[in-house]
Amino acid sequence: MATQNTFKADWIPSQNDASQTQTSAKRKSAASWQQLGLSPQMTRALGLRGFKQPTPIQRMAIPSALENPPRDILGMARTGSGKTLAYLIPMLQRLGTRREPHGIRCLILCPSRELAVQILKAGKDLSRSLAGTDKSSALRWSVIMGGESLDQQFEKISEKPDIVIATPGRFLHIVVEMDLDLRGLDMVIYDEADRLFEMGFEVQLREILHRLPASRHSLLFSATLPSSLAEFAKAGLNNPNFIRLDTEHRISPSLKTAFVWTKPDEKDAALLILLRDAIGISMSSEVVSNRQKAIIFASTKHHVEYLQTLLSAAGYRASFIYGSLDQAARQQQLRQFRSDDTDLLVVTDVAARGIDIPSMGHVINFDFPSSPRVFVHRVGRTARAGQEGSAWTIVTKEDLPFLLDLEVFLDRPITGNKDVFGAAPRESLETAMEYIQNGLEEAEPQLPSLREVMKRGQSMFERSRSKASREAYRKAKAIVADLSHGPMVVLPVLQSETGSEPAESSQLRERLLESVQDYRPPETIFEIGSRGKQPAAQLMQQRRLLLSKHRADRRVLQVDDNDDAMETVSHSRGKRLSL
């Protein structure tokens, strides 16, 4: 099997070539839809839908997809770059209208139900805007997903739709059960292909690939290109046009990032500080013109349940989604967030796949992402289409090696940049902790039990995630050692201009707290001050005397045992010497 580097050398351009390609695309930034080879009907439909100018990925992908014969495409671009229209536009123009013989002409494979529904909506909206298309000749769409009745999906396929949007597992099941003939298929599109592989669909994808006609036109879009996906692309695509955007920036240049250093037991307090002081999430249900919204990523469903309960108890309006949540509940929670009934959406990575929230302003990583690629996927939900956005990440000592690996991956300073990496003010943290323990837990008695379940879930997550690099662990150890000489500086964005203590005072206070944390007094609380003559204090003193005598007796016994052992060894050595 060829390695990734060998494979990439075959047909993927070098970094310089990719940069030149991107520069060429920038020169065409004023290119209109007409210059991409689109029909007048398609150009008009795009104008009606409010799409004024093509995005970079659309400018580079659409002409290749409309060539005669069309060329396969491997496009790398982050979420929100416009890649959905980059394949829907040439697909609709090539398919035209419904024709005989009826059957599946285009297959779109994606990782989640939410993404499939979004593709369906975008495709149908654009298709309806095309002039001169009556109902009898309009293309028919069908969505095939897990979690729905197989009988209903058999019926959908029996109606011979032109376009099928599906997840690989359920589609392969339908193909096998119905013995579907896919030889009439013209196009196959893989959307968010790296996530398809991350979710374990590689076997199903390869089986589907074997059943497709050799003459198919293939388009594959992905944010990253892991080696397994690269090998699949080599087998499934024929001399593709490789399009790579943002080669010098794996995350949007308009994205602001901040990393908040804290202790594991203070993460929920740090989250409340971020929402209140940094982002300014409203607790009011009143309609506000510029209302802030955020998506919060957590490791497991136990984290999601705890955080949603905590935030609701604190007065925030929060929705939640995790993988095992039933479909009706998922749709209801997402609908509430999209319609601004809630301002926060707490999700796991698996549940968030395919969820597209165009107006997202903030991303919060309550739990550190398991890999740099996951970080890129998460923060790619904000700062889209040139708009500004913010990504906030809570970091503990256990997360530090992974942060250092992320620093290398992004090729930008993080741990050494005091403007993006720092702690929350100690006074604010203590106030938030007290608020949680004495206020929220009284209002919501199930919070302590949910927190314990969350901690067990975190332990399981940490055991299952892959390790950071050795160099990252070495550097992390050095950073932690430096912190023993002085606390982490306060993150500037969390340092209030008024009402907060100065940075120097905060650091001295932090150092004092750290120095007394490990202090263990020689006396118990019963023996201090005027209570020393009370019965409880006298009992503790008698117990201390007995304990001291017991320890002394044990030391004497250990010395005797050592002497006996030495005597035995000497005796045995003497025997060996005499022999």
Architecture overview:
- Residues 1-34 are annotated as: Disordered.
- The chain is 49% helix and 11% strand.
- It is an alpha/beta fold.
- It folds into three domains: 4-244, 3-Layer(aba) Sandwich (Rossmann fold); 255-395 and 408-467, Rossmann fold (3-Layer(aba) Sandwich); 521-555.
- The strands form two sheets. A seven-stranded parallel beta sheet has the order 3-4-2-5-6-1-7, with helices on both faces. The chain has a seven-stranded parallel beta sheet with strand order 10-11-9-12-13-8-14.
- α14 (327-338) links the parallel β10 and β11.
- It is elongated and about 100 Å long.
Features:
11% strand; 7-stranded parallel sheet; single chain; 49% helix; 22 helices; alpha/beta; Rossmann fold; 579 residues; disordered N terminus; 3 domains
CATH H-level homologous superfamily name of the largest domain = P-loop containing nucleotide triphosphate hydrolases
State the end-to-end CA separation.
65 Å
CATH topology of the largest domain: Rossmann fold
Supply the helix-strand structural class. alpha/beta
What would the average pLDDT be, to the nearest integer?
82
Indicate the overall shape: elongated
Spatial order of the strands in the main sheet? Answer: 3-4-2-5-6-1-7
So, CATH architecture of the largest domain?
3-Layer(aba) Sandwich
Report the top-level CATH class of the largest domain: Alpha Beta
Report Rg: 31 Å
The major β-sheet equals: 7 strands, parallel
Fraction in beta strands = 5-15%
Name the helicity range. Answer: 40-55%
Q: Uncertain regions: pLDDT < 50 for 5+ in a row? A: 1-31, 497-502, 565-579
Total strands: 14
With helices defined by DSSP (H or I, 4 residues minimum), what is the helix count? 22
- What is the domain total for the residues? 3
